[in-house]
Amino acid sequence: MKDYKRYTVTSALPYANGPVHVGHLAGVYVPADIYARYLRLKKEDVVFIGGSDEHGVPITLKAKKEGVNPQVIVDRYHSIIKKSFEDFGISFYIYSRTSNKTHHETASEFFTTLYDKGEFIEKTSKQYYDEAENQFLADIYIMGTCPKCGAEDAYGDQCEKCGSSLSAEELINPRSVISGNKPILKETKHWFLHLDKYEDELKQWILEEHKEWKPNVYGQCKSWLDSGLFPRAVTRDLNWGVPVPLEEAKDKVLYVWFDAPIGYISATKELTPDWEKYWKDKDSKLVHFIGKDNIVFHCIIFTSMLRHEGSYILPDNVPSNEFLNLEGDKISTSRNWAVWLHEYLEDFPGKQDVLRYVLCANAPETKDNDFTWKDFQAKNNNELVAIMGNFVNRALVLTHKYFGGIVPQPSSETDYEKEIKAEIAKIKENIQYNLENYKFREALKNAMNITRLGNKYLADTEPWKLIKTDEDRVKTILYYSIQLCALSAVLAEPFLPFTTTKLVNMLNISKPEWEETNNFELVKPGHQINKTSLLFERIEDDAIDAQIEKLNKTKEMNIAQSTQVEPQKDIITYEDFVKQDIRIATILEAEKVTKTDKLIKLLIDTGIDKRTIVSGIAKYYKPEDIIGKQVCVLVNLAHRKLRGIESQGMVLMAEDTDGSLKFISPESLSANGSTVS
């Protein structure tokens, strides 16, 4: 493994359109902070960079909903996020933001360098445009029916139901998220990063040279590379973001996934005039901590940007966790199904390290994991209180009780003490190995083993009994116990910084550095320790019940909202209504469309003709049960292709408040072709 002179550690920039929740912390910020704290303890030259991502569609959507300028939104949430991180102990060297001047200048310069090198291709294409809002629509602004699974609320970039990557043009019956109107296609010009040109070099660099990356990171990159890369747009038709620095690009901004990672660089510029050595010196190690959904952007797109700009180093590693669920359900900001950091800090004051511990112990490092309040309580009471807190309290209380708080001079060292020293050396080695290989959950277990070892030592030796017969032996036992407390204050610091600061103060010592733990004796005999207080407190059922009740109320509210009757749509004229030609028709044949969950292919007698209609009703009806059924059909709807089948109209359905669909049928048998008016 190469030795580096310095380290550049970055963590994904959270969107400034909402607060931070436990999923963000477990996925990115707790592991990044642990790693940065470890490097500082080792006296490495390190910068730890963070900041708010203040551009992009989600922010403009929120601003539009509230009727304010996007700057109002980002100012609000940047402050909330920044303070939450500070209060929680995420030890950024700088927490910046992408709406500031330095970032705009840096991103513009980066684009210009790539542009001058010919790394972009220009494309004029048709893009969806909302005439009512007088703006082009980014993919996330468009919803419609997924062409692959039939889900009706797929976005223009991805179907959340089947996970398929999409383009907006593939959606069936697209509609604008902003106005609800059907968008039109309108020509626009954009600049694309030539990713397909970089495919071979990326395969070599990732698949051959970085096989040590975490399996989820390596696997996702391999999947993209095996599928083949294509040019990726780096500009958008928006009025919020970094303006594209070209004369012909009026009213266009840099795509948020182009400008956001450049925020790491611009923040480092703000931090130090020596920023280039952290980004351009080959002796610097660059590590990106990101969420699962950002893997491709950092490993493939941002890496390509850095490589072809020409002067930057590339990331040595991109550690990414999977997702953290909450009480068995996917965390959702839109449904308020989350534990928000700023609310946690209000509800559990002084218990930052409890949450840090639980999120690291349950870190979704190899697969999705679950946060539950009962497990949170159990880990606090059964591990932090019962193991670490118990050992430290007993060791310090006994030292005060028997020796007035003065660290005793040890007498003879037995084989037991020699075994403890050897075990501590192994523990430290394991912690270091796991931290340097981004296995933070395992490293935390190693760190807790110090106080586990201490508890066993006290239980085995029973100094409270020996004090009556062998005071010298008790001096040795408590001397070793105090050393274990001090070692824990160093080796557990990256995980539990507030707790270890408290422990250092009780020991009345300056916090030792990492390398000082090579010497077992961190506290000299004759040293006076301070008054003892509890490191952790038990968390009682009522505090946990309150949090569970809060989530239950959120769930009840979500259910209530999902079952509300749709509000009345905009008023239309009679002339609008009579344009619709609705006829009574009979289903003659019905069969499921292969490789879909929702679609049924129908042959229908409309009285005018016999035609094929594809309908998304397979979840509610079996094909064999609806043959002969009379239904209402909109016969003059423009034809659309669904899974390669031309659908020549629409069967009218009633959607109940629970989302189920029911046919609209005549009260009694009617002639096919009868009009509905």
Question: Overview of this structure, please?
Answer:
The protein is an alpha+beta fold and 677 residues long. Among the domains are: 6-109 and 247-321, Rossmann fold (3-Layer(aba) Sandwich); 372-518, Isoleucyl-tRNA Synthetase, Domain 1, CATH 1.10.730; 574-663, Beta Barrel (OB fold (Dihydrolipoamide Acetyltransferase, E2P)), CATH 2.40.50.140. Helices cover 42% and strands 17% of the residues. The chain is built from 20 helices and 24 strands. The strands form eight sheets. It has a five-stranded antiparallel sheet. Strands 3-2-1-13 form a four-stranded parallel sheet. The longest helix is centred in the middle third of the chain and has 31 residues, at 373-403. The protein is elongated. The model has no long low-confidence stretch (mean pLDDT 93).
Question: Spatial order of the strands in the main sheet?
Answer: 18-17-16-19-22
State the separation between the terminal residues, measured CA to CA: 77 Å
Low-confidence stretches are: none
CATH superfamily of one domain: HUPs
- The third-level CATH topology of one domain is Rossmann fold
Q: Helix/strand/pairing class, anyone?
A: alpha+beta
CATH architecture of one domain: 3-Layer(aba) Sandwich
Short description:
The protein is built from 20 helices and 24 strands.
Main attributes of the structure:
677 residues, alpha+beta, Rossmann fold, Isoleucyl-tRNA Synthetase, Domain 1, OB fold (Dihydrolipoamide Acetyltransferase, E2P), 5-stranded antiparallel sheet, 4-stranded parallel sheet, 17% strand, elongated
